[in-house]
């Protein structure tokens, strides 16, 4: 279909409203990035096509079944989610049916972020804090700090995997452990046996600690040793798993996620759940997405190929990435992420924010389409050719609080 | 907005195909059929019951908003796949409409998130929530969940907010929930009386915050009607909540906002600010931008349409000796002289859904939302049967 993006814009620009939306795209992305990137004013100059590989989204968006569902359900936009067809109850029931559990084993979230936030609210306190990794997804420690609850950040190991031994040791007396598997931003994963062993040892050492296993990137894992922890969560008190439709399902903009676990574990999350948190269109989209498993398989295969291409391209430039099991890479670019990010942005490529304590050396690069990554690789080559900034202070920096606001996954 | 349906379908189809892989191009036939089905679906008579239970706009968001969402959606079909930075754009559009600054506004996933944030921040174990009985339950429900006290205040004899009792109860309270028009009683306190109330509470209990919920603002026809946004912008202890769920017809999309003093808004945003990476979905953001940028004729026409249906329905009940309150919203609260539950169950059996119980009036009063005129004509035929049967049985 040889229709350029420009051609489409021209066609669609007849209604003033839509023209405004389409034209505002660059500004929008810019604001989104600058507001959320810890003050780094990364800016794509006007006139340069933007490649957004900064927020771990599926670059193709949702599958056809999802688009169809959204379109056909739009006439119900005026109805509350409990009055729509399908309703929010139907979505919870469909997710429950997928895992052969009951609706009370499921709590819906406006994305998984609402669930992470409510987990911290429900399960931590001034006496019983949060244990997480550094770096890991910042949402949970951000909330814990707002609440004034203690946060223990356990550095990742030498190959940038979650240091399970150290996290077990830190878990004693804690309220909640956040185990992001695969881990954002380091992209590494732990196998099913390691996770089961982790859970069992934490339960022995600290039986009251709640274990949250965030599997946002589940669908991108190709390591045969990995398996979802959902069966484990359903069998084990004080363990639950969060999932999202924002990643492989390509529905980041729709805000749908869920938590799954034993009903007694889910109860506090259900209590804190915001009423009608998932929109009518989000409900319909998620239902359609679950029925379209081929789309996920295709997306995993596509990502695996483009990931391999990107790892190699960076490797050829002398930049090593951790073992990625996700739709992003965590790569040692031997210079501050900020410097790299700003230089790339000048050429239209948006990469991830700072991830202390590794922000002086590593950058997170999401996997776009093959075409986008080819273009991005050329930009990386030109950026990496330039002189590095003066040698850095090698002392590891404590994870910074400026990351609290960062909410991009 | 002279985009013909044919051109629209073409644009959408090409947009998706242009940006997506070949497997998607193969699926174009299906996509075409979905988009083509769009307009007929809009005009189709909604199957299933007549829903008069949730104070929704029965017509939905309207053509302008739908076109905007279609356009946003159509950009390569990629929109829903991206986190969205449009929160800022919507905030700016609201600020322009309400003649305030962006720092006066925080967005929420419906006004539900706004009501929860305010209750979270401004009530505590020793700082109770003040709310009328009955009123919209979100704030009281959240306060109770947090273990914060709730101080209930009765309505006056006309089912209106009783400002003297509310002002007394506000003394030393953390938050006053001031729902005006009040859900479920549909009554409205005039702008002048509300202004005096806000000033009095601020004077007598300076630490108390007042959350003025203007969810039904666009439906009020009382001549003494005004928004309290200008007060909220100046007074850090006053917050106005608004929603796109009512007159703007977007209940299913989940978008609301608060307007207030920058310090107050900052607190709310820091605690639980809605954004395109948090609770706000991208289609609602785009719909909100289009909705708020419409000229005043959209809400004026919805207000007029609602008033016509409201007058018809209220007269129907009054003619039969059942007295509604002075409804200033898109719903009414009427004394049917029997338990709401019995009435509700009987109506449900005949395909009309009316609202839940509202204690302490659940033994006598029912809340009815207004549908379209056609729906209300069909609904009153059902009410006629249900109410007649009941009174015959009682006789």
Secondary structure layout plus pairing:
The complex is a heterodimer of chains A (409) and B (395).
Chain A: H1 5-12, H2 16-23, H3 25-36, E1 51-52, H4 64-73, H5 88-98, E2 106-109, H6 111-123, E3 130-134, H7 139-147, E4 151-155, H8 164-171, E5 176-180, H9 192-205, E6 210-214, H10 230-235, E7 239-244, E8 257-261, H11 263-272, H12 280-290, H13 293-316, E9 328-332, H14 337-346, E10 349-350, E11 362-366, H15 370-385
Parallel strand pairs in A: 1-10, 3-4, 3-5, 5-6, 6-7
Antiparallel strand pairs in A: 2-8, 7-8, 9-11
Helix pairs in contact in A: 4-12, 5-12, 6-7, 8-9, 13-15
Chain B: H1 5-19, H2 22-26, H3 28-36, H4 38-43, E1 50-52, H5 63-74, H6 86-98, E2 105-108, H7 110-122, E3 129-133, H8 138-145, E4 150-154, H9 163-170, E5 175-179, H10 191-204, E6 209-213, H11 229-234, E7 238-243, E8 256-260, H12 262-272, H13 282-293, H14 297-319, E9 331-335, H15 340-349, E10 352-354, E11 365-369, H16 373-394
Parallel strand pairs in B: 1-10, 3-4, 3-5, 5-6, 6-7
Antiparallel strand pairs in B: 2-8, 7-8, 9-11
Helix pairs in contact in B: 1-3, 1-5, 5-13, 6-13, 7-8, 7-12, 9-10, 14-16
What structural class do you assign from the helix and strand content of chain B?
alpha/beta
Q: Given the C-alpha coordinates, what overall shape of chain B results?
A: globular
Q: What spatial order of strands do you see in the largest sheet of chain A?
A: 2-8-7-6-5-3-4
Q: What is the subunit arrangement here? A: heterodimer
């Amino acid at each position: 279909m040889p229709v350029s993006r420009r051609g489409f814009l021209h066609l669609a620009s007849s209604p003033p409203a839509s023209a405004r939306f389409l034209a505002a795209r660059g500004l929008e992305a810019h604001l989104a990035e600058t507001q959320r990137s810890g003050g780094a004013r990364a800016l794509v100059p006007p006139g340069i096509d933007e490649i957004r590989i900064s927020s771990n989204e599926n670059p193709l968006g949702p599958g056809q079944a999802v688009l169809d569902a959204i379109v056909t359900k739009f006439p119900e936009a005026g109805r509350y989610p409990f009055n729509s067809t399908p309703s929010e109850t139907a979505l919870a029931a469909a997710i429950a049916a997928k895992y052969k559990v009951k609706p009370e084993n499921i709590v819906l979230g406006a994305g998984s972020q609402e669930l992470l936030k409510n987990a911290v609210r429900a399960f931590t306190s001034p006496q019983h804090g949060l244990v997480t990794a550094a770096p890991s997804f910042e949402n949970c420690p951000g909330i814990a700090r707002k609440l004034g609850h203690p946060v223990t950040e356990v550095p990742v190991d030498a190959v940038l995997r979650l240091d399970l031994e150290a996290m077990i040791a830190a878990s004693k007396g804690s309220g909640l452990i956040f185990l992001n598997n695969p881990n954002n931003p380091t992209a590494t994963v732990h196998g099913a046996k390691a996770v089961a062993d982790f859970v069992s040892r934490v339960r022995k050492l600290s039986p009251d600690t709640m274990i949250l296993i965030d599997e946002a990137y589940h669908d991108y894992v190709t390591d045969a040793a990995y398996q979802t922890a959902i069966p484990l969560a359903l069998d084990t008190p004080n363990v639950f798993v969060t999932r999202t439709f924002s990643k492989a399902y390509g529905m980041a903009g729709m805000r749908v996620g869920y938590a799954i676990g034993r009903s007694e574990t889910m109860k506090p999350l259900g209590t804190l759940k915001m009423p009608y948190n998932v929109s009518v269109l989000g409900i319909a989209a998620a239902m359609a997405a679950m029925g379209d498993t081929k789309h996920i398989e295709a997306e995993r295969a596509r990502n695996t190929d483009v990931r391999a291409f990107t790892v190699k391209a960076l490797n050829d430039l002398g930049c090593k990435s951790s073992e990625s099991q996700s739709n992003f890479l965590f790569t040692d670019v031997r210079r501050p992420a900020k410097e790299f990010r700003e230089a790339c942005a000048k050429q239209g490529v948006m990469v991830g924010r700072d991830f202390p304590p590794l922000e002086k050396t590593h950058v997170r690069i999401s996997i776009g389409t093959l075409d986008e990554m080819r273009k991005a690789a050329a930009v990386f080559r030109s950026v990496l050719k330039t002189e590095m900034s003066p040698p850095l202070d090698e002392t590891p920096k404590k994870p910074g609080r400026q990351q609290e606001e960062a909410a991009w996954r | 907005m002279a985009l013909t349906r044919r051109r629209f379908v073409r644009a959408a189809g090409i947009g998706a195909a242009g940006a997506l892989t070949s497997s998607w191009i193969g699926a174009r036939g299906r996509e075409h059929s979905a988009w083509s089905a769009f307009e007929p679906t809009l005009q189709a008579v909604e199957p299933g019951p007549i829903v008069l239970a949730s104070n929704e706009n029965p017509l939905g968001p309207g053509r302008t908003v739908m076109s905007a969402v279609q356009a946003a959606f159509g950009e390569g079909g990629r929109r829903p796949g991206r986190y969205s930075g449009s929160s800022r754009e919507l905030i700016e559009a609201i600020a322009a409409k309400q003649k305030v600054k962006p720092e006066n506004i925080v967005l929420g996933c419906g006004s539900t998130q706004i009501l929860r944030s305010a209750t979270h921040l401004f009530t505590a174990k020793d700082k109770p929530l003040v709310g009328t009985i009955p009123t919209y339950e979100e704030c009281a429900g959240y306060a109770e969940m947090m273990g914060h006290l709730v101080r209930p205040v009765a309505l006056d004899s006309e089912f209106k907010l009783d400002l003297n009792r509310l002002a007394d109860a506000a003394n030393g309270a953390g938050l006053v929930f001031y729902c005006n028009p009040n859900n479920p009683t549909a009554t409205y306190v005039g702008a002048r009386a509300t202004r005096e109330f806000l000033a009095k509470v601020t004077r007598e209990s300076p630490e108390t915050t007042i959350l003025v919920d203007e969810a039904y603002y666009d439906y009020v026809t009382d001549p003494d009607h005004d928004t309290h946004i200008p007060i909220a912008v100046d007074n850090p202890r006053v917050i106005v909540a608004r929603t796109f769920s009512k007159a703007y017809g977007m209940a299913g999309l989940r978008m609301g906002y608060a307007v207030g003093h920058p310090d107050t808004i900052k607190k709310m945003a820091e605690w639980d600010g809605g954004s395109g990476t948090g609770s706000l979905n991208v289609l609602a953001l785009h719909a909100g931008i289009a909705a708020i940028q419409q000229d005043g004729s959209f809400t004026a026409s919805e207000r007029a349409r609602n008033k016509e249906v409201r007058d018809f329905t209220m007269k129907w009940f009054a003619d039969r000796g059942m007295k509604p309150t002075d409804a200033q919203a898109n719903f009414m609260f009427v004394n049917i002289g029997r338990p709401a539950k019995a009435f509700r169950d009987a109506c449900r059996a005949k395909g009309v859904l009316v609202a839940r119980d509202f204690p302490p009036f659940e033994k006598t009063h029912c809340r009815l939302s207004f549908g379209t005129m056609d729906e209300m004509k069909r609904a009153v035929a059902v009410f006629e049967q249900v109410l007649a049967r009941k009174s015959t049985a009682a006789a």
